[in-house]
Amino acid sequence: MRIYLVGYMASGKSKIAEALTKVLHIPFVDTDSLVEKKEGRTVEKIFETSGQEFFRKLENQVLMETEKTENVIVATGGGLPCFFSNMEWMNTKGITVYLEANPGLLFHRLATSRGNRPLLNNLNDIELMEQITGHLAVRIPFYKKAKITVSAANLNAKTLAEKILKFKNA
């Protein structure tokens, strides 16, 4: 069973992946971490020195490598589903789960951590909210292709695991 978690940055993909690991007893990987390991530098440095296009190609490569693992939870980068037909590919290789979050929740979570995120560096509050709403307008159609959609607001690993298993066994 492969589970791909998709959604905007700060929707909780990595956090819920870690919690799901304990419930489903399968490991998780984070595509950003895989990219950093492959490249030997942080996502921020990759964006800064090589650009977004280079990063997206690396991100696609590490995604394709997840096919080699039978049982895994994959926390994807926020933009990953929107490039190279990645969303369609994930839908053919596993169960996709969209962690849906509204702009207000995302703003609240990102306002304190924007310095660690390459696409949000140096944005003031108004620019941050504009960035979130602009990105969501483009990305939601990709996210909505997921097989399961859940609210990111009060996400519970046990409940999500039950939904995933129910979908798998349907």
Order of helices and strands: EHEHHEHEHHEH
Radius of gyration: 15 Å
Can you count the beta strands?
5
Largest sheet: 5 strands, parallel
Report the span from N to C terminus.
14 Å
* Estimated share of beta-strand residues: 5-15%
What overall form do the CA principal axes indicate? globular
Helix and strand composition category: alpha/beta
Helix content: 40-55%
Output the number of helix runs: 7
What is the average per-residue confidence, as pLDDT, rounded to a whole number? Answer: 95
Strand order of the largest sheet: 2-3-1-4-5
Q: List low-confidence stretches.
A: none
Characteristics:
170 residues, alpha/beta, globular
Question: Helices, strands, pairings?
Answer:
Blueprint lengths: L1 E5 L6 H12 L3 E3 H9 L3 H23 L6 E4 L10 H8 L1 E6 L2 H8 L14 H19 L4 E4 L5 H13 L1
Parallel strand pairs: 1-3, 1-4, 2-3, 4-5
Helix pairs in contact: 1-7, 2-3, 5-6
Characterise this structure.
With 170 residues, the protein is an alpha/beta fold. It contains 7 helices and 5 strands; from the N terminus they run E-H-E-H-H-E-H-E-H-H-E-H. It has helices at residues 13-24, 31-39, 43-65, 86-93, 103-110, 125-143, 157-169; strands spanning 2-6, 28-30, 72-75, 95-100, 148-151. Strands 2-3-1-4-5 form a 5-stranded parallel sheet. The protein is globular and about 45 Å long. The model has no long low-confidence stretch (mean pLDDT 95).
Short description:
This protein is an alpha/beta fold. The protein has seven helices and five strands; from the N terminus they run E-H-E-H-H-E-H-E-H-H-E-H.
